[in-house]
Design a protein that fits this description.
single chain; 577 residues; alpha/beta; five-stranded mixed sheet; three-stranded antiparallel sheet; disordered C terminus
């Protein structure tokens, strides 16, 4: 391809194909033919499909010496000498590239003043100065004095779409490289009464670490029937080309999603944390009267300004830590335990304050006994829920019944015996130090020792896949138990060459997570995006923002390569590790 085509401003919106005959739009991923050697098809596509996006990058302009400032009486030769001299000076390295000069005190005060104004007038959180991405932005801008902020239209229509496509392409590479994966899914309704469905993929990467990728948090406008949900998940799987890799789908216990998973002939795993929460809610119905009275006390202190300050003052007088009461929320796991634990911690202050301000809310001795006896019962549920809600935790089984354990081991023998290793996965035997010390020089022409070596190899590394898999599993079962706090994936990564058959099976099963909490985290982030100030955001932009928030894959190296394709780029704009 000619250099003229590559330097055209149109190529900030397109990516050249390998065969130099097609180009891919960075905004809508449309493939356009450029075999004729003209950019007419690219221009026509931008004017018809992306009319709002400017064709030329007018925002960043290079800072060059103005030739108009030179006197017209100067000769052409003198002008060339001046330009040549200035270019040589610019190419020379300066001390500022190695030692950064501290800014003047007056300039620092001016910037600090503007920062306070931005936080105050823009209703930004004070912690914005501690956010990593904001600090990176300030660092990059300080290295590029000629930078100009993009317009709102450029940011939403051009930059965000471009970065979204880059991150999605990189995420697809990671997902499609996984041997198997599990999906967690859940639904959520925004403050705008829009329905969103999130699907998160979990897989074991090449470093034997559990990795998660948000496939999409998509605005779903159809009815949430089992058939519609099944078709929706099939479309997402087909888009990411993972239909043949799904080991299981983790969801809550809603009837429609469970039916959709069965309809799609996928393995369904109920969210363990959700199931535990249902158990706690059902059990606490027996003490609903006590819980109701505790909720009334918490609600009073949360709504009454006088009660709030009086409770804090009482805690200080009693030399107790100043703590706020927590309210029980039915949809929030462990909130019942948190409410009861907190009110017990400030029991004396609550009794004194309630007796003074609201005697009708006083709890009797029987109520306090019930609360203090229930806490040890709810504590194990709290600890387990917190433990399994970690996104890096996969499903673990503890089988206490001996007969059931034997059945599981036999099933594993059959499964692992069917594992087919890819060529090169089976490692060569590594001689130990004892073998090296007692080794005898072999004679390559000796048929006796060749036959001996072949027989030993048949015993130690049988050709039969079933026999090799069973032998590996039996050896693995004799390993010592792993400590609960140790990482099983790290253990398998260190022994992946010792148990290649079992490791191949583990990489397809340890990707199953225990809960659908990853989707809940996605919805928490979506709620932050769709706050009161941004309720007019379209669902498409919300999905892109959440996708970029959850998937931060684009590497600095790739970003630098991408920046080199833009016009007027400068080496000082490059990202650093």
């Amino acid at each position: 391809m000619s250099s003229k085509r590559k330097h055209s401003p149109l190529w900030t919106h397109f990516t050249e194909d390998i065969d130099n005959k097609k180009a891919k739009c960075n905004h809508c991923s449309t493939i356009i033919s450029i075999a004729g050697g003209s950019n007419g098809n690219l221009t026509r596509h931008m004017k018809t499909k992306h009319l709002l996006i400017p064709l030329t990058a007018e925002r960043q302009t290079p800072i060059l010496p103005s030739l108009n400032s030179l006197k017209s009486s100067q000769s052409t030769c003198e002008s060339e000498n001046i330009i040549s001299a200035s270019s040589n000076i610019d190419s020379q390295q300066s001390m500022t590239q190695y030692i950064r000069r501290p800014p003047p005190v007056r300039k620092i005060e001016q910037i600090d003043k503007q920062l306070v104004k931005m936080v105050a007038k823009g209703h930004h959180a004070l912690r914005i100065v501690e956010e990593t991405e904001f600090r990176k932005l300030i660092e990059l801008v300080s290295q590029c004095p000629g930078y100009k902020l993009p317009s709102r239209k450029t940011l939403s229509e051009n930059l965000m779409s471009r970065i979204h496509n880059d991150v999605m392409a990189e995420a697809k590479i990671k997902v499609q490289a996984a041997p198997a994966l599990s999906l967690s899914t859940d639904g959520w309704t925004s403050r705008n009464n829009d329905s969103y469905i999130a699907i998160v993929a979990h897989f074991i990467n090449e470093e034997t670490k559990l990795h998660s990728v948000l496939l999409g948090c998509i605005n779903y406008k159809e009815r949430h029937t089992n058939q519609n949900l099944c078709d929706f998940m099939k479309v997402v799987m087909a888009e990411w080309n993972i239909s043949h890799k799904v080991a299981a789908i983790v969801s809550d216990n809603a009837a429609n999603i469970l039916s959709a998973v069965r309809l799609g002939d996928w393995r369904s795993i109920s969210c363990f944390a959700h199931s535990l929460n249902l158990v706690v809610q059902e059990a606490t119905k027996k003490i609903c009267d006590v819980l109701g009275r505790v909720k009334n006390i918490v609600e009073f202190f949360n709504r009454s300004t006088q009660g709030k300050h009086k409770l804090a003052a009482t805690q200080q007088q009693m030399n107790l830590p100043v703590l706020k009461l927590k309210q029980d929320v039915q949809t929030r796991w462990n909130s019942t335990f948190d409410m009861l634990k907190r009110i017990v911690q400030v029991k004396d202050a609550v009794i004194a304050t309630v007796a003074l301000l609201r005697p009708d809310l006083t709890l009797n001795e029987g109520d306090w006994e019930v609360i203090e006896e229930v806490l040890p019962l709810l504590s194990p549920f709290y600890e387990i829920t917190v433990e399994i809600s970690a996104e890096k935790n996969s499903v673990r089984f503890w089988i206490k019944n001996q007969r059931a354990c034997e059945m599981v081991v036999q099933a594993l023998r059959n499964k692992i015996g069917q594992v087919q290793l890819v060529q090169g996965d089976t490692p060569e035997a590594v001689p130990t130090s004892s073998d090296a010390s007692t080794s005898i020089p072999s004679n390559k022409n000796s048929c006796i020792w060749d036959e001996y070596d072949q027989e030993i190899q048949k015993i130690t590394r049988p050709d039969n896949q079933l026999a090799a898999g069973i032998r590996e599993l039996d050896k693995y079962l004799n390993e010592e138990y792993l400590n609960r706090k140790e990482d099983p994936l790290q253990w398998w990564h260190e022994r992946r060459l010792i148990y290649p058959h079992v490791y191949a099976y583990v990489s397809k099963r340890f990707c199953v997570v225990a809960t659908s909490v990853p989707c809940e985290r996605v919805f928490s982030a979506t709620g932050q995006v769709l706050n009161e100030r941004r309720t007019l955001l379209s669902s498409n932009k919300v999905s892109k923002l959440i996708f970029l928030h959850s998937n931060n894959f684009i590497s600095p190296k790739r970003a630098n390569e991408r920046a080199k394709d833009l016009p007027f780029t400068d080496s000082s704009w490059e990202l650093t590790n």
